[in-house]
Design a protein that fits this description.
The chain has ten helices and eleven strands. Strands 1, 2, 3, 4, 5, 6 and 7 form a seven-stranded mixed beta sheet that branches. It is of the alpha+beta class and about 300 residues long. β3 and β4 form a beta hairpin. It folds into two domains: about 180 residues, Formiminotransferase-cyclodeaminase, Chain B, domain 1 (2-Layer Sandwich), CATH 3.30.990; about 120 residues, 2-Layer Sandwich (Alpha-Beta Plaits). Helices cover about 35% and strands about 25% of the residues. The protein is globular, with a radius of gyration of 19 Å. α6 crosses α7.
């Protein structure tokens, strides 16, 4: 932290619950009396059966809020009864910390380790550290940790190379395991297609994601949204400056056209940095000599 400043850290816990209003209310209640933390956004998806909370505040307040949210999730979410489109391995599936203002990545790494150790010690929930907090390079990628899902974790944790960073080698019977980490701002971005064909969404996801030879900082999966009877390309953009939203959108549009499919809409899950959206405006509007600091009203006022 920078001495003499008020540091702000963001935390974005993902919960394996997107349908039960009572559970979601209990999660909100868990942090409502914590001074110094703000609940900025809740994104809920019934098809994914998943909710993403965005909270921000001082390091001390965020640390306490992260633990209390996990405690509430362990109490209220039973993964043996959970079904949804999104892959998951825990009641709190993932909990990243992000430096926002007057804080460093090292601050968030230290925070992730403190919270992870407390979760394991007090809640009997095995914890993996990922991204910048990973102590093993093989655990940097969340997808590698999550592979096998809740149902496969008991077998996975028996393997020496998958011993949790904190906690025992037996998943919590109803809450599974959790990945706690530190990372740069990530944009969760979904594109909906005018087809129910999940095979088309999977083919597009394979074409755009970096691990399959697509865009370097894009992770993508095909999903089926039962309530709307449409397919979706669900993505995480882990470096929005090197793989911007507009480039992903255009590539998905191009790939979809190969199958005679169109984009019917897109959505942000949680919050996105202003620059990521301004970059889209500059690209699609073909703004000449655009300068975010000079042409955006709020930035000029600030």
């Amino acid at each position: 932290m920078i001495p003499g400043t008020n540091p702000v850290i963001e935390c974005i816990p993902n919960f394996s619950e997107g349908r039960n209003a009572v559970v979601l209310s209990a999660l909100q209640d868990a942090i409502k009396n914590i001074s110094g933390v703000s609940l900025l956004d809740i994104h809920t998806d019934t098809d994914h059966n998943r909710s993403v909370f965005t909270i921000a505040g001082s390091p001390k307040a965020i640390e306490e809020a992260a633990f209390r949210l996990t405690e509430s999730a362990v109490r209220h979410i039973d993964l043996t009864k959970h079904h949804g489109q999104h892959p998951r391995m825990g009641a709190v599936d993932v909990m990243p910390f992000v430096p926002i203002k007057n804080a460093t990545m090292a601050d968030c790494v230290a925070l992730a380790k403190r919270v992870g150790e407390r979760i394991a010690g007090e809640l009997s929930l095995p914890v993996f550290l990922y991204e910048e907090a990973a102590m093993d390079p093989g655990r940097k990628n969340l997808a590698d940790i999550r592979r096998g899902g809740f149902e496969g974790m008991a077998k996975k944790l028996c393997q020496p190379e998958w011993k949790p960073d904190f906690g025992g080698c037996t998943p919590h019977p109803t809450a599974g395991v959790v990945a706690v980490g530190a990372r740069k701002p990530l944009i969760a971005f979904n594109i909906n297609l005018d087809t129910p064909d999940i095979d088309i969404a999977n083919a597009i996801a394979k074409a755009v994601r970096g691990s399959s030879g697509g865009l370097a900082y894009c992770k993508a999966l095909g999903m089926f949204l039962k309530e709307r009877n449409i397919a979706q390309v669900s993505m995480n953009l882990v470096d929005y400056e090197n793989t911007p939203i507009y480039r992903v959108f255009e590539m998905v549009r191009m790939e979809a056209a190969r199958y005679g499919v169109k984009i019917i809409g897109s959505e942000l899950v949680g919050l996105a940095p202003a620059k990521a959206l301004m970059d889209c405006a500059e690209y699609f509007l073909r703004l000449e000599d655009f300068d975010m600091e000079r042409h955006v009203l709020e930035n000029r006022i600030e």
